[in-house]
Amino acid sequence: MITDLEKKLTEKDDVSPVVYRDTPDTILFRKKKGELLVSYLSSDLPEYACPTIRVLSPLGKLSDKVFVARPVIKEGNNFLIRKDGLCKAAIILIQRTAFLDISISELKSPWRKIIYEIDDLLIEVPTSNPYKSFFARSRRNKIIDAIIGADAVTVSTNALKERLSVYNRNIHVLPNYIDIEIWGGEIKNPVVNKDRLVIAFIGTLTHQEDLTMITPAIKKVVGKYGDKVMFRFFGCITKELLQLKGVEFICDFIPDYRAFAGYMKSLDIDIALAPLVKNSFNECKSNIKFLEYSICSIPGIYSRITPYASSITEAKTGILCDDDPDSWYRAMVNLIENEELRRQISECAHGEVLEKYTLEANAYRWYDFYKSLIEETTHRISVVTTKKGNLSLRVTCEDGSIKTLHSLYDPEAEARSIVDTFQFDGRGILVVLGLGLGYHLKELIKRFPEAEILVIEAMPEIYEMAVQHGMIS
Fold it and tell me: Parallel, antiparallel, or unpaired: how do β-strands 402-404 and 391-396 relate?
């Protein structure tokens, strides 16, 4: 699915951040012990398919462990980011084509991780795709830059990982799953002994080439069965198919993914089609259509390419077809003529999705990966005991060098020495850049009890260490 066109990030300080939370009075960021802060950058509405499937539904299952903030607002044609919505995050998550005009290096810090999330091979969009011009060379290069610059990349399939691994070695597969909260888990019993069977295709308008591939097969089915079969196309159709008798086109696109799921569950469909022409773009797609058709108890016919061939058991959870119309014709005739086979496939596929592909059973994969990524950062900061028996901070830099933030002999004496050289009359506001473990702050408070002291610390991990070891309250 091609998302809204993202606009260049601009800064504006007099606007309020938009935060994706259920309650309207939430703050931009919160912190509970053990909770990961994820700042999510996307120019799509939260209810759209990509944000829902790839980010908000999985992380929503982890609300006790992960807090997702969305410091993005839309003003006119511009998408704006509150910079204060980034500095406190442990992870900045950038999805697909959002904010590609901003260099990843501008967002990077040794104390947080940048994840680039992409679920399609957007650097190799086929010529037949109506959005090919959107992914022109300049945008393609920016996507590649984002992949290269990110600390990690998350994708939906192993095939996509393989295609992108030349740009980044740290690519992690987080497959697409079905959210039972959205789709429900009940099996839907088919209507038997119908006068007319409904064969359907559901997809975006990017699938015209895929439908063209199976058009001869559809023509033969229409010619063989006449009024006994109705073809319904949702979201995409070709001009040739529109002219056929017994073909119906429903063009309404439902951007809200929850509403789309409810709509699909309500449809009376006997057989569903999922054709994909063999090319590198389609080979990297996920099996999402198999998951959605199956959770709706609809037996499906699928192209025999990676997304489906790797997850469907032939004639048990679906029918796989080659790239020729005769294969599709035989598959459709087989299911049209065999009501029992349709029932068996719908039941087996539905059961397999519930057993293997629910988000409820797999959301932990997001947390485990995010946590492991964060631990790479937190391990760079450690507390060491000094010769005087108090504490200092040791920082391992990205180049492997090691620095200490306080004396390894006597940090308290070091703080007194620093404050001794400081010229201040004790009046007004004193701004301190850097907290460390707070030795200098304690000495300043002792020397200037009437002063208002403001401490700026850009690294949340250092603040947490100071609190954890009782250096500040």
Answer: antiparallel
pLDDT band, very low/low/confident/very high, at 290 (cuts 50, 70, 90): very high
Using CA atoms, how far apart are residues 148 and 6, in angstroms rounded to an integer?
20
Q: Is the pLDDT of residue 149 over 90?
A: yes
Which of 90, 110, 107 lies closest to 31, judged by CA? Answer: 90
Residue 147 clears pLDDT 80, i.e. is over it: yes
Q: Which residues pair with 39 in a beta bridge?
A: 69, 92
> What pLDDT, on a 0 to 100 scale, did the predictor assign at position 400?
65
Sheet strand arrangement including 197-202 = 247-250, 229-234, 197-202, 271-274, 300-303, 319-321
Give residue 384's pLDDT: 87
The predicted model scores a pTM of 0.80
Beta bridge partners of 92: 39, 114
Helix, strand, coil distribution of the chain in percent, nearest 5: 40, 20, 40
AA letter at 230? M
Dihedral, 439, 440, 446, 447 alpha carbons, nearest 10: 160
Q: Cα angle vertex 344, ends 339, 347, to 5°?
A: 125
For the ranges 158-167, 186-195, 365-374, the lowest mean pLDDT is seen at 186-195
Go through the chain and tell me how many residues it has: 473
- Tokens 């592909």 belong to 357
- pLDDT (tens digit per residue) in 10-64: 233 333 333 333 333 333 455 565 688 999 999 898 999 999 999 999 999 999 9
With vertex at residue 433, the alpha carbon angle to CA 428 and CA 438, rounded to the nearest 5 degrees, is: 95
Q: Which amino acid is at 374?
A: I
Phi, psi of 86 (to 5 degrees): -110, -40
Distance CA 267, CA 128 (A): 29
Question: Is the pLDDT assigned to residue 109 strictly greater than 80?
Answer: no
Q: How far is CA 387 from the centre of its chain?
A: 48
Contact 124, 141 (CB under 8 A): no
Over residues 265-271, the mean pLDDT reads: 95
Q: Which helix (H) or strand (E) holds 14?
A: none
Rounded Cα distance, 408 and 392, in Å: 6
User: What one-character DSSP code corresponds to residue 460?
Assistant: H
Model pLDDT for residues 192-211, shown as the tens digit of each residue: 768 899 999 999 989 999 99
Residue from 206, 4, 204, 1 nearest 98 by CA: 4
Q: What is the DSSP string of 274-332?
A: E---SSHHHHT--SHHHHHHHHTT--EEEESSHHHHTT--BTTTBEEE-SSHHHHHHHH
**DSSP 8-class letter at 54:** I
